[in-house]
Design goal:
alpha+beta, Heat Shock Protein 90, 492 residues, elongated, 5-stranded mixed β-sheet
């Protein structure tokens, strides 16, 4: 005897859970505004108007509107319609597509959700009243009211959330629209309480990029902000799918220190699979793995350029401090020629001899200054050839070099990176090398006054040793006198 029989279990869901699911997927009720605006974009709207009142939010657009079938799809949670028609008919927009649950989430913030739409001669209004919905236990229908064709003049849709039980700040809505809607798309504009919302505009060093993956392109732009514009509030790169930000990620910038706050930008990758609540990505997917590899390449280049830009700025800072230190040292040497290892100063040259640092005539200048690859300046060469050229170590592109001359004789000062464990200062013949990586140098370079004093200390130390390298005690005394005369104005 065959006792097998087929039975079926009905899968059901309590109607009240529809709202609960919406609330959990859209943790902020404000997401409702973003979803409606993006629906208008998908419907080829050129203008979306958002009006925020005390207990009502109204969002109206001039898109194609909906007919009966469109309304049915609109209230069909998880509809696949946009997957079957991924391009909009008028502007051929890549439809953003949503899961359709956001409209139910809105009822956690209000009592009634209303949709009024016109498509040709069809004008309909659907009202979703929270209390009525929950009371009609077994009824899963929403009332559709058919209105006269002239009830609304033009095609489009108006969505109203009424009976608000919480207050919406227009600034919060604007911030969400800026981040989560395609404001940069052509023929698309969003207005909030009468003013047009514009995309966020950042100034800085812009680095556009385009990377290929097996699943599609990754494009975007990274902006290195000026230090004065850096912000810790919105750090990271915005990752956008179909022009909508899903989340921000750092791509290893966590190890960059304070420089991380100077990086902003966006990466567009429409092929990325996103989670159902649109707040993240399916990270164990091959698409995300390929995307992450592409972004690691991009951020590697960004880091190099950031270091170069930072080096240029630091180089200019060092150059100014070094110039002033040399001016003071030259003044002290002119006042104490017996302390100079270069012999007596030429007559009438008491205020000359520092490359670009003492306002000397061009024919006596011999200044070499390299700051992060910037053009060097080299004046006319002296008539007499140098007997001996100083040795020069292998330098970085961020090296800063100046020469202090006394007639045909002088000393070159090079400030460059020689490692934290390298000597603070050292000399090779007539070249003085100062290590900008040394912890003491870093500590003293924070303020301009201490920076100048520290440079002068290191340079006078080496100059004093050049005078008599076998007698360091006497060299120390010479240095003390040079520093005193360099920084103390005797005229006061």
């Amino acid at each position: 005897m065959n006792t097998n029989s087929n039975e079926f279990i009905n899968v059901t869901i309590d109607k009240s859970h529809i709202i609960t699911i919406g609330e959990r997927l859209y943790t902020e009720s404000i997401e409702f505004v973003r979803e409606i605006v993006n629906n208008a974009y998908d419907a080829d709207a050129a203008l979306v108007e958002i009006i925020v009142g005390e207990d009502i939010i109204e969002i109206r657009d001039n898109g194609s509107g909906m007919d009966r079938d469109g309304l049915r799809q609109y209230f069909n949670i998880g509809s696949q319609q946009k997957l079957h028609a991924p391009k909009s008919p008028v502007y051929s927009r890549d439809r953003i597509g949503q899961f359709g649950i956001g409209k139910f989430a809105t009822l956690s913030a209000g009592k009634r959700f209303e949709v009024l739409t016109k498509n040709g001669d069809f004008v309909g209004r659907v009202t979703f009243d929270k209390e009525v919905w929950e009371k009609a236990k077994d009824t899963w229908q929403l009332p559709l009211e058919i209105l006269p064709p002239d009830f609304r003049k033009t095609n489009g849709t108006t969505v109203i959330l009424a009976g608000l039980n919480k207050k919406f700040d227009p600034k919060d809505i604007e911030a969400r629209i800026i981040e989560d809607t395609p404001l940069k798309a052509p023929h698309f504009r969003v207005r909030l309480n009468g003013h047009t919302i514009t995309p966020r505009s950042l100034s800085g060093h812009r680095l556009p990029f385009l990377e290929g993956t097996p699943f599609g392109p990754v494009s975007g732009e990274v902006i290195i902000l000026p230090e004065t514009a850096s912000s810790a509030k919105e750090m990271g790169i915005e990752i956008k799918v179909k022009q909508v930000t899903v989340r921000r990620e750092y791509f290893g910038m966590e190890t960059w220190g304070k420089a991380m706050a100077r990086i902003a930008g966006e990466a567009n990758a429409d092929f990325l699979p996103i989670t159902s609540d649109r707040t993240g990505f399916i990270k164990d997917s091959p698409e995300y793995a390929a995307f992450h590899i592409a972004m690691e390449r991009v951020m590697g280049e960004v880091k190099k350029i950031l270091q170069k830009l930072s080096g240029k700025k630091e180089g200019r800072k060092v150059s100014r401090a070094l110039k002033e230190a040399l001016q003071k040292i030259y003044k002290a040497l002119a006042a104490n020629p017996d302390l100079s290892p270069f012999g007596v100063f030429p007559v009438g040259d008491e205020t000359k001899g520092i490359g670009g640092a003492a306002g000397i005539p061009k024919e006596t200048v011999d200044t070499v200054q390299t700051v992060s690859g910037e053009p060097s300046t080299k004046a006319a060469a002296p008539k007499k050839k140098r007997k001996k050229k100083p040795k020069v170590k292998q330098l970085t592109p961020n090296a800063v070099i100046r020469r202090m001359k006394f007639g045909d004789i002088g000393v070159s000062i090079c400030v460059d990176s020689f490692g934290e464990d390298g000597a603070e200062v050292f000399s090779e013949e007539t070249t003085i090398y100062i290590n900008r990586d040394h912890p003491l140098y870093k500590r003293e370079s924070g303020k301009i006054d201490t920076h100048i004093l520290n440079l002068a200390r290191l340079i006078t130390q080496e100059i004093s040793l050049m005078k008599d390298p076998k007698n360091p005690r006497q060299a120390y005394e010479r240095q003390s006198k040079l520093l005193r005369d360099a920084f103390i104005d005797k005229s006061n």
